[in-house]
Write a structure and sequence with these properties.
The protein is α+β, with helices and mostly antiparallel strands. It is built from three helices and six strands; from the N terminus they run E-H-E-E-H-E-E-E-H. It has a single domain (about 1-70), classed as Alpha-Beta Plaits. About 20% of the residues lie in helices and about 15% in strands. It starts with a strand and ends with a helix. Mean pLDDT is about 80; it is low at about 70-85 and about 85-95. Keywords: 4Fe-4S, Iron, Iron-sulfur, Metal-binding. It comes from Halodesulfovibrio aestuarii.
């Protein structure tokens, strides 16, 4: 994942939609990666960024296949809702 700070306007949508809490807004109000190991490569941050300030690069598995998203066994994936996340589009707009 790559964040382009010059493009980021600090809206916080990427932070709100990230199921792994990988991103946070820094002291300058820009998104930054704080827990890269928690990224599941879902692309929610990239999808919701209105400023195109985030690029999610495919991960490569041990057998050379590209991984677009990964979940632990027992987790469910879905737009704005994954195991352990209570983020909804309404909350992101109201609270974000």
């Amino acid at each position: 994942m790559c964040v382009y700070p010059d493009w980021c306007k600090g809206c916080g949508l990427c932070v709100a939609f990230c199921p792994g809490k990988v991103l946070q807004l820094n002291a300058l109000g820009k998104a930054e990666v704080v827990q890269p190991e928690e990224c599941i490569n879902c692309g929610f941050c990239e999808l919701h960024c209105p400023d195109f300030a985030i690029a999610v690069r495919p991960k490569v598995s041990e057998n050379g296949m590209h991984i677009r998203a990964s979940c632990e066994p027992g987790e469910t994936g879905g737009a704005g809702k994954t195991s352990g996340s209570d983020v909804t589009p309404q909350k992101a707009v109201v609270e974000g």
